[in-house]
Design a protein that fits this description.
The chain contains eight helices and six strands. By secondary structure, the protein is of the alpha/beta class. The strands form two sheets. It has a four-stranded parallel beta sheet, sandwiched between helices. α1 packs antiparallel against α2, α1 packs across α4 and α2 crosses α3. The longest helix has 20 residues. The chain is elongated, with a radius of gyration of 19 Å.
Length: 183
């Protein structure tokens, strides 16, 4: 990401989570690990290592939406595991913290040094995104971060940028949104 092009004159910097603050695959691979351990235990088998390896390969080749279906078909376990997989995706307790990119930590420090505020504006299932947030190793940057969920705001018929600006007595021009499209 080209962080040098981000103006440090804004008042609030809104960040998406996945592939902006940390590598999304770090979250997914830990969920795949947890799921593999669950299947291994439930089936009384010794396939966890192969299962994780396979899930990772499918993720890298076909994307995260294809992982469960291909894994279930290849390892021939029942579709009853879909509920467990989905539950782990949203509520899984990760064995390792998600690490902020070094560039993000530097950007956070610069924003704070220049008097700006940091906030999260994230799309997707709020429960899933909240689970990701609680597993990030914030290194102290989370003390004053406010979190906004795009889906929740849309549900309430609120335009996210207008709402956030209004809530903070700012103009939308005082906001800077940083997502994975920044390059």
């Amino acid at each position: 990401m080209n962080w040098k092009e981000i103006p440090l004159t804004k008042k609030i910097y809104l960040f998406e989570l996945d592939d902006v603050l940390y590598a999304k695959q770090d979250y997914l691979l830990q969920i795949y690990y947890l799921f593999a351990q669950f299947v291994d235990f439930s089936e009384s088998t010794d396939i966890a290592t192969d299962l994780v390896k396979y899930m990772r390969e499918i993720f890298l080749e076909k994307g995260e939406r294809e992982v469960f279906e291909h894994t279930q078909a290849s390892f021939k376990f029942t579709t009853n595991y879909q509920e467990n997989f989905d539950r782990l995706m949203v509520n899984g307790q990760l064995p390792l913290k998600l690490l902020l990119y070094t560039e993000i930590k530097l950007l956070f420090a610069s924003i704070i040094e220049n008097g700006g505020q940091i906030a999260i504006l994230t799309k997707g299932n709020p429960a899933l995104q909240l689970n990701k947030l609680k597993h990030i190793d914030w290194q102290g940057f989370d003390t004053s971060i406010k979190v906004y969920f795009v889906d929740e705001l849309h549900f309430r018929n609120l335009e996210p940028f207008t709402y956030i600006a209004s809530e903070n007595n700012l103009d939308t021009s005082d906001l800077c949104f940083i997502d994975s499209k920044l390059s």
